[in-house]
Inverse folding.
């Protein structure tokens, strides 16, 4: 089944992902007793806010025809990624991302949840990169690189038994 997303729609979704990520990290920081981990989580929240601003700027920079035009995806692969992720916790608007913090039984659970959310957003941004034109590709590549770095940072905080 073919899916069509406008550039404006996918950038709004990206902004929401980053807003949810920031809220998640801020709540996680507030729930963490470890001062060094709290500082890293707050840094991650700030990075997510920067990504949100980047996606908002990309969306604001779209010409009117680009805003409504379906993205170019002749094989339907990139749009398929986006559609497959639409029901994940990254996108579920009914889910309060901070609730995921409260559901984590241990700091390791919290870190595993954060890693899963980062991986979901990476998958989305891969699809986004392939859907949007070359003008946005470099910015999305930068964000992808940073999100991969977030996973590495979070993994480094996990106990070695995980």
């Amino acid at each position: 089944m073919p899916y069509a997303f406008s550039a404006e729609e996918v950038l709004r979704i990206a902004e929401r992902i980053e807003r949810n990520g920031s809220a998640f990290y801020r709540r996680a920081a507030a729930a963490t007793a470890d001062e060094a981990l709290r500082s890293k989580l707050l840094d991650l929240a700030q990075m997510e806010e920067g990504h949100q601003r980047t996606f908002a700027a990309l969306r604001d920079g779209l010409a009117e025809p680009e805003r409504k035009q379906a993205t170019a995806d002749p094989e339907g692969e990139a749009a398929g990624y986006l559609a497959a992720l639409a029901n994940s916790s990254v996108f579920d608007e009914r889910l309060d991302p901070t609730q995921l913090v409260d559901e984590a039984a241990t700091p390791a659970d919290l870190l595993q949840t954060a890693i899963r959310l980062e991986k979901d957003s990476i998958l989305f941004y891969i699809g986004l990169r392939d859907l949007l034109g070359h003008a946005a590709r470099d910015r999305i590549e930068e964000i992808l690189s940073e999100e991969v770095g977030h996973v590495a940072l979070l993994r480094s905080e996990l106990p070695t038994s995980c």
Summary: The mean pLDDT is 81. The radius of gyration is 16 Å. The longest helix spans residues 35-60.
